[in-house]
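Morning. Coffee machine broken again, so started the prediction first thing and wrote up yesterday's gels while waiting. Chain of 201 residues, entered below exactly as on the submission form.
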Amino acid sequence: MFYRPADGHDLPHNPFNAIVTPRPIGWISTRGADGSDNLAPYSFFNAVAYVPPQVMFASTSSKADRGDTKDSVANIRETGVFCVNVVEYAARDAMNETSGPWDKTIDEFTKAEIERAECDTIACARVAHAPANLECKLTQIVQLPGAANFAVFGEVTGVHMRDDCMVDGMFDVTKFQPLARLGYKDYTQVRDVFSLTRPGE
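Came back before lunch.
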């Protein structure tokens, strides 16, 4: 099968999300200028540089109470910081609860009964018991083609790693099984790991 996205795919559901998989989930916590906390998952997320460490996530829809975007981007515009919380398989239901189109006055930490902690390098809340948290300072927001498509880039200024995820000085993802997004309503968890040595190493 071949299709041009501009012409449509004539399928029951968009296959694009199922093709670009698995995608790590950035569980993004932000704080508005008024001090209100927000927590929402984004599957258009990844690390993009080592030195200095940098990450990005993309928001692709809007809410009536936030104009051209959603709560996360609106808060980051106001404060210039955000935190990426790594999602483990055990937190899948809590993560899903925070994905709803809730009013901007709703605190997802409270709604999903998620314990929060304060970040160390930025004024923002983080998921207290997440396997890892990346505290980030905004570097740029890029408006992409299409309505409400924004890519948010940040430099990592602080890193938290849960002690039980450390094995022989390494961060071991099999200890918590990261959740990853597939297409449609589907997810997966990372349970198996193998290593490859690059040519010349």
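The CA atoms of residues 161 and 197 lie 26 Å apart. Going to sketch it on the whiteboard this afternoon.
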